[in-house]
Specification:
The protein is mainly alpha-helical. 89% of the residues lie in helices and 0% in strands. The chain has one domain. The longest helix has 31 residues.
Length: 61
């Protein structure tokens, strides 16, 4: 569940930059949003790999 907390924290940290970019049209905030979304993508991929590996290690019933 640690990974899930990481995702939640990352999304919450980006909330201010989303507001600045979309509502106030702050271009620097858009750069931070793109960087954060790339981190989110990488974290999601790591989680997918962990889940798949765990699933493959567990014997079928």
């Amino acid at each position: 569940m640690n990974r899930f907390e990481q995702i939640k924290n990352l999304i919450m940290a980006l909330e201010g930059d989303f507001v600045k970019f979309y509502d106030k049209e702050n271009q620097a905030a858009g750069t931070r949003v793109r960087k954060g979304m790339q981190e989110l993508k990488n974290l999601a991929q790591e989680i997918r790999i962990e889940v798949q590996n765990s699933k493959n290690e567990t014997p079928a019933n």
